[in-house]
Amino acid sequence: MMVYLIALLFALLVAGAVVVLAIRPLRRELLTQRLFTTYKSLLPQMSATERDALEAGTVWWEGELFRGNPDWQKLLAYPVPRLSPAEQAFMDNEVEQVCALVDDWQVTGELFDMSPQAWTFIKEKGFLGLIIPKAYGGLGFSAYGHGQVVTKLSTRCSALSITVMVPNSLGPAELLLNYGTDEQKQYYLPRLARGVEIPAFALTSPWAGSDAASIPDYAIVCRGQWQGRDVLGMRVTWDKRYITLGPICTLLGLAFRLYDPERLLGGKNDLGITCALVPRDTPGVDIGRRHLPLNAMFMNGPTRGQDVFLPLEAIIGGPKMAGHGWRMLMECLAAGRSISLPSSGVGMAQLTARSVGAYARVRSQFKMAIGRFEGVEEALTRIGAYTYMMNAVRTFTASAIDLGEKPSVASAIAKYHVTERARQVVNDGMDVIGGKGICLGPSNFLGRAYQQLPISITVEGANILTRSLILFGQGAIRCHPYVLREMQAAHNPDTRQGLVDFDQALFGHVAYTARHGLRALAIGLTGSRFVAVPDGVAPEARRYYQQLTRFSSAFAFLADISMLVMGGELKRREKLSARLGDILSMMYLCSATLKRYEGEGRQAADAPLMHWAIWDALYKAQMAFDGVIANFPKRSIGRLLYRIVFPLGHPYDVPSDRVGHQVAALMIAPSATRDRLTAETYLPKTESESLGALELALAATLAAEPIEARIRAAEKEGRFDGVPDANVRNISAAAWRIGVVSDAEYALLKRRNELRELVIHVDEFPPDAQFSLRQPEPRKAAA
Ligand SMILES: Cc1cc2nc3c(=O)[nH]c(=O)nc-3n(C[C@H](O)[C@H](O)[C@H](O)COP(=O)(O)OP(=O)(O)OC[C@H]3O[C@@H](n4cnc5c(N)ncnc54)[C@H](O)[C@@H]3O)c2cc1C
Fold first, then answer.
1. Angle between helices 143-154 and 325-362 in degrees, nearest 10
2. Exposure pattern of 359-383 as b/e (b: 16+ CB <10 Å)?
3. Which of 253, 288, 425, 610 is least surrounded, with the fewest CB atoms within 10 Å of its CB?
4. For 722, left (φ over 0), alpha (ψ -120 to 50), or beta?
């Protein structure tokens, strides 16, 4: 009897719960109201600038990956970007010509600037107006076309690529295009396109770097004299540093906080961050000195101004845009971040892949090309596979911009991971070429890239911050189907409507989390073998789509449980947030790589690059899952999560040495694969330049290898015993003398030796060479 009573009670409780959950008004009153109050008290305070940053831009493919069930048809359907005939012609002509005109050693070691001829060329040929539409006299290039140009320039000279990159990235032109008044556009854009104006954009202050929204630079609305008239304007005071092109700019885009204490604009006092255009010759503008950013020798320096008067018309977009600067900057950042730094990173990686691969075949130690030693192979494998993946990410992300997207999270992923991998690739390259990379001079083809790479790590969102705060932090809010809706509901001043919206979002959220938990477990238990994959994909890549769907589902579940358990605390738990961002990023990198493989027509010869890169990224994603789960604040929940995410243990081992060997082999021999991998590299045609010499030396080395094999065999037979010059340098001559090789073969060996000599040469300078710049001026203390 008792048992029946308990069962009846339980059934009544369950039925009650079901009724409460099913009848929305009842659910809201009895349950959601309490949860809503608790949620609002736990929600971290968010400033208007933080909110602007989080809400800026759009969500693209990364949203699919975040939401646990990526639609692969969508990925396959995105158009593969191609150059227009005009862009292709520009790449083949103007870009080639400017590369030939600029000599990196002259820029970095002699002139400390580009030559006047190079400056004139880039201005006259429109390099500073790639993104400006033709209607305003610019070249009107697509994001992809723009990226191709910057990538190629980056294989030649950083000063050149950064000088071109900055006016085409976040700065006056981009801001004017998006927010400028017609008058501002008509006046400035044609001048910027032709290089009549040199732009710079100044946001960073000594006191506010990463936390740029805290800039102390300010302006006070007031009346004043402007070109002989009494006008409403503002007195601006600033102290900025690190401003690229600052020392030579004629038009300074300036960010400051605008105040209107006398309410001359009729609104509030603190109007917020505002962006204005300041002609360099405005009285009071202090600009012109230089910093020395890791010997890259592009123009970069500080600027200051004290109570500089500007009319309100100087605000980008006019007075109505006062206080909208932060949102403008955040929206434009996504486009810039998708193109400039990914392109420069890919440029440096392609340069490394091309040059170091060749060097590893030409340079021989222990009677063998160094590229054949397994230890060196490991580095070559990373160089090749990362370069393949990086270029895939760059191209894929640029294609989003050309589709009209401003993907804030995808652009941050591209910026962070392409620059980090560029650092790894260049570091590996430096290790492979040994002392050759260390001694600077015109013969060193990699030392400057190694020196300058940290610049791209630091700018446009320093990488540690990007990984720790943005990739998951912004991803969670922007890509998640419910989190932003819940937050917006909590911030809704109409609390009644807020409760209704919150209720809907919350219960949708609960169902979403439960679904992904069950799905992740089911896919994990079946090794993802039953995950549906579109018929059109390459059979050799099919398993990756399945594994990515598995990881995506597990990620959606893990992300939700992390947010549920840690709430706002997750913002401070940067290590966990960074690892969640790593998982999302690795899935994005893999998607881009699969897209590249398909887009290039599934090149069978390139398959090892694709396999190694994806395998490595999936393994890294797996480690990132481990990193989150092992450090989960509640250990019991962590253990449960592990059982759901990896019910049968880890699916991935490290990438195989066999595939790694195949990749390394592709790096040290000429082939169509190597050409595709390094397609944007500027290749000098003559041996007087180090990269030109390397190309010729590689061909000569390959031609000499069979002859050299015969010499080695003769050596083993003892035919060189007692021959005094049968040493590492002169054995070819000795072999010819004693008849091991013919005249023609000796001529071939001699040519190979000449080129090898050029390739391994390092520069020497007189003992009294002047390397140093003059001492910097001492900094005056601030008042
Ligand atoms: C060569 C060069 C060119 C530049 N060009 C321009 C330009 O044209 N215009 C312009 O306005 N600015 C420019 N900058 C500025 C650049 O954007 C800043 O350097 C950048 O924002 C970082 O600021 P910071 O160097 O002061 O580093 P800091 O802000 O001092 O950061 C130091 C370290 O702390 C980390 N960090 C900071 N906060 C967090 C956090 N919350 N969580 C985790 N890590 C954190 C950062 O990732 C970084 O690793 C340039 C800088 C350089 C070096």
1. 50
2. bbbbbbeeeebbbbbeebbbbbbbb
3. 288
4. left
The amino acid sitting at 152 is K
Q: How many CA atoms lie within 13 A of 223 on its CB side?
A: 6
Torsions phi, psi for 233 (to 5 deg): -155, -150
Distance, CA of 26 to CA of 513 (rounded, Å):
23
Report the pLDDT value the prediction gives residue 484, as an integer from 0 to 100. Answer: 85
Instruction: Tell me how far apart the alpha carbons of residues 522 and 533 are, in angstroms, rounded to a whole number.
Output: 16
Q: What does the pLDDT read at residue 215?
A: 97
Q: Which residues of the chain have pLDDT under 50?
A: 783
What's the confidence (pLDDT) of residue 95?
98
What is the distance between the alpha carbons of residues 757 and 333, in angstroms, rounded to a whole number?
46
Q: How does DSSP classify residue 229? A: E
State the Cα angle at 362 between 361 and 364, rounded to 5°. 85
Residue whose structure tokens are 């990224």: 617
pLDDT of residue 730: 95
Nearest to residue 280, comparing CAs of 243, 230, 228, 334?
A: 243
Residue 251 bridge partners (DSSP) = 199, 279
pTM score: 0.94
Burial class (CB in 10 A: 0-12, 13-18, 19+), 182: exposed
Q: How many other CB atoms sit within 10 Å of the CB of residue 783?
A: 4
Residue 15 structure tokens: 């039925």
Report the pocket of ligand 1 as residue ranges, CB < 6 Å.
201-204, 209-210, 242-244, 293, 300, 455, 458-459, 462, 464-465, 468-469, 574
What are the backbone angles phi and psi of residue 223, rounded to the nearest 5°? -95, 155
Which residues are annotated as catalytic? 460
Q: Residue count of the chain, please give it.
A: 783
Q: What is the DSSP code string of 31-61?
A: IIHHHHHHHHHHSPP--HHHHHHHH-SB--H
Query: Cα of 664 to ligand 1 centre, how many Å?
Result: 36
HEC sequence for 286-337: EECCCCCCCCCCCCEEEEEEEEEEEEHHHECCCHHHCCCHHHHHHHHHHHHH
Query: What is the DSSP secondary structure assignment for residue 779, as one 8-state letter?
Result: P
Query: What pLDDT does residue 492 have?
Result: 87
Closest residue (by CA) to atom 16 of ligand 1?
A: 459
What pLDDT is attached to residue 597?
98
Which residues, 6+ apart, have CB-to-CB distance to 370 below 8 Å?
A: 360, 363, 364, 376, 432
Chain-centroid distance, C-alpha 433: 26
Nearest-CA residue for atom 23 of ligand 1: 209
Contact 675, 609 (CB under 8 A): no
Residue from 161, 210, 463, 573 whose mutation best tests the ligand 1 pocket (most atoms within 8 A of CB)? 210
Instruction: Tell me the C-alpha distance between 281 and 75, whole Å.
Output: 50
